[in-house]
Design goal:
By secondary structure, this protein is an all-alpha fold. It has helices at about 10-30, 35-85, 90-115, 120-145, 150-175, 180-195, 210-225, 240-250.
Length: about 250
């Protein structure tokens, strides 16, 4: 199920089909619920209210995770830009090496945010890990002979660069729990089944049969789109990193 949530349009289509089938299933047994129709209407209203709350809660979870990814992208750009400036605090030859490595590292971080190709992402992850090692070796070698409070700023800045990448990676892996999706699905199906059960036998359903499934599916589509870092159309773009890369081009 977790991999399915990376494709919001598939989630929308599947949700609409399942919920429409739930309404039709309930309508098929509507005559058996005739004796408890009034009570069923009360339960249906309560279920729809609960469904609205769960949708709102899930949407809030998705938005908070999206904002977190945006925040860490900005912090990555700030950390890399700061360390680029602090490279002037070490000997000139070492500083130039660090700046060259930072530009290469920045390109890989931009690729992390923009690519949707899994092979390219795996290659970028390997390159990023190697560049992190090279950057740390370069800054520690540059400051080994002159360990002063000034050169310590370069080491501290590099530590921030490496940490910010870890925070960003964790934010991209932080998705809405599958249990929350499961709860939303169960309540949505129950609400649509009860909608069918409350239908008066012999009355044409027409387009009304698809209204609630379509509305719920549209809400699920938006939530899945926001929550999928590399799926759909709503995802964090490396605006700050791209702007920084443009300013650092020699």
């Amino acid at each position: 199920m977790a991999s399915l949530l990376n494709y919001p349009l598939v989630v929308f289509a599947l949700s609409f089909v399942v919920l429409s089938a739930a309404v039709k299933t309930g309508a098929r047994f509507a005559d058996r619920a005739e004796a408890v129709r009034d009570d069923l209407s009360v339960v249906l209203a309560a279920t729809l209210t609960l469904l609205g709350l769960i949708v709102g809660f899930t949407f809030s979870m998705a938005v908070s995770r999206y904002d977190q990814r945006k925040l860490y992208e900005e912090e990555e750009a700030n950390a890399i830009g700061t360390e680029y400036v602090r490279s002037d605090l070490v000997p000139a030859s070492d500083g130039e090496t660090i700046r060259k490595l930072l530009r290469d590292y920045l390109d890989q971080r931009i690729l992390f945010y923009e690519t949707r190709d899994q092979d390219a992402l795996r290659r970028s992850s390997a390159s990023t890990a190697q560049l992190q090692t090279d950057l740390w070796v370069a800054v520690t070698r540059a400051t080994a002979s002159a360990q002063t409070p000034v050169t310590a700023l370069a080491v501290s800045g590099m530590n921030d660069v490496l940490n910010s990448q870890g925070y960003s990676q964790a934010a991209w892996l932080n998705r809405i729990p599958v249990a929350a999706w499961g709860l939303l699905a169960v309540i949505a199906v129950c609400a649509n089944v009860m909608l069918g059960l409350s239908w008066h036998r012999g009355r044409a359903m027409g387009l009304l049969i698809g209204i609630l499934p379509a509305m719920v599916s549209a809400a699920v589509l938006l939530i899945a789109d926001i929550d999928a870092p590399r799926g759909g159309v709503i995802h964090v773009r490396a605006v700050n990193l791209v702007s920084l890369a443009a300013s650092l081009r020699p």
